[in-house]
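Collaborator request, handled under Task 6.
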Amino acid sequence: KDDATTVSSFTEKSQREIKRMEDVIYTLLKLARLDAGIIQMEKTPENLSVLMQDVLERFETWAERENKTITLFGKEDVVLSCDALWISEAIGNIVKNALEHTENSGHIRVKWSQSPLMTQIEISDDGKGIHPEDLYNIFKRFYREDRVHDAPGIGIGLYLTREIITRQGGFIRVASEVGSGSTFSVFLPHS
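Structure tokens returned to the collaborator:
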């Protein structure tokens, strides 16, 4: 490699590292504000398709860089009463987690549907999967799986996600098999 290529590569890696640090700081600040009770969740009717498209756009560059695909499935007219900013944060954290734990050319699927009582958002991937021992702990604050210390993060994204979903009156489930990927299912009430 010539010097210009080396410098360019180093600059790009540095910028990514700075962005990652900023993300961690912002996540910690959001968590602190939630814990302090500063934040009130405001529910307004939101088009779920538009909301999920916004989430997708946040991660498109990352996915393209690692040759991964994120696909959306769901009706375009589904309306959910929620705090758009915080639900976007919660789903974004799950998508981010999926990107971190899938190999290059991996696939992530975001699917939503509505029943008379609940709206369900399902995020599935074909990544490494989660070890059964870790399934009970992944939503704990600062929990990091021993087996994935090569992946970035400090173990607060999924904790924050569960906090947000719970405060919106919903709940979250995860199903996973080592080597076959994971599926996170978010259930949110209509009102």
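The cover message to the collaborator said: "The radius of gyration is 17 Å. The mean pLDDT is 83. Please let us know whether this matches your experimental observations."
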